[in-house]
Design goal:
- By secondary structure, the protein is mainly alpha-helical.
- Helix content is 77%, strand content 0%.
């Protein structure tokens, strides 16, 4: 398919917004997946191609959080182990499963997160000064992270919310640390899923790399905001993005 100036601008613009949204909350793929599909991509190809942009966005985001000292190295391996296992399984499932399974999963994740934010926001919005748990102290966190990995490997859209629920909800990290570890997890299992998609020749590289330009710039801007923003602003951003993500999942 011919890449016109309009399509290139659409991909970079939506990628920029998605990079900000994914870094600070989740659900940015609700913008990028339709942008790819409006160009004529089947849902499974768009799902695979989108991972190129998500991976590159993750590289920028993790680098930014690490430079600011927000990535706790001692927590990375315990958090990554179940997430990577789930991501590999999810990527294999996505590569071989019917396209019809993608939207119902997205709807369930988005609506569930919305209800949590509306009914009991303290589950994911941790009070300042709360001492986080380690994965070994909270076995339930292992299963939560595994399921987040499966979901993220299967369909990228909305995985940020699932990871926030797992990291803040079970391990009680503050939002900045949660977002930093969320980016590490996303980067890692996206790489595994991307390898599966590449193996099955489901990635359209030209569109994916153009989209990645926007997501990388957006992630760079978002990391700076997250590090310097008032925690209350981050909470409101997460709440608004949860509602917007749910609406996008329902009406897309």
């Amino acid at each position: 398919m011919e890449l016109t100036a309009t399509y290139i601008a659409l991909l970079i613009g939506t990628g920029f917004l998605a990079g900000i949204i994914n870094t600070l909350a989740g659900g940015g793929s609700n913008l990028t997946l339709p942008a790819l599909m409006v160009m004529g991509m089947p849902a499974d190809i768009a799902n695979a191609t989108n991972r190129v942009a998500v991976f590159m966005q993750g590289v920028v985001g993790v680098k930014g959080f690490h430079k600011a000292g927000k990535v706790k190295r001692s927590d990375i391996i315990p958090v990554l182990a179940p997430t990577l296992l789930g991501g590999l399984i999810g990527g294999i499932m996505a590569s071989y499963s019917p396209e019809a399974y993608l939207k119902p999963l997205l709807l369930i994740a988005m609506i569930s997160m919305t209800f949590i934010m509306l009914i009991k926001p303290s589950v994911v919005i941790v009070p300042e000064g709360t001492q986080p748990y380690s994965v070994s102290e909270k076995p339930s966190a292992w299963y939560a992270l595994f399921l987040a990995g499966v979901y993220g490997g299967f369909v990228q859209a909305g995985v940020g919310f699932v990871l926030i629920a797992a990291l803040a909800g079970t391990l009680r990290y503050d939002l900045v640390t949660t977002n930093a570890l969320k980016m590490v997890c996303t980067l890692s299992f996206t790489l595994l899923a991307l390898i599966v998609f590449i193996w099955n020749d489901q990635v359209w590289w030209q569109q994916g790399l153009i989209l990645a330009i926007g997501t990388m710039i957006g992630s760079m801007v978002a990391v700076r905001f997250a590090i310097n923003a008032n925690p209350a602003h981050l909470k409101w951003f997460l709440f608004v993005m949860t509602l917007a993500g749910s609406a996008a999942a329902i009406f897309s």
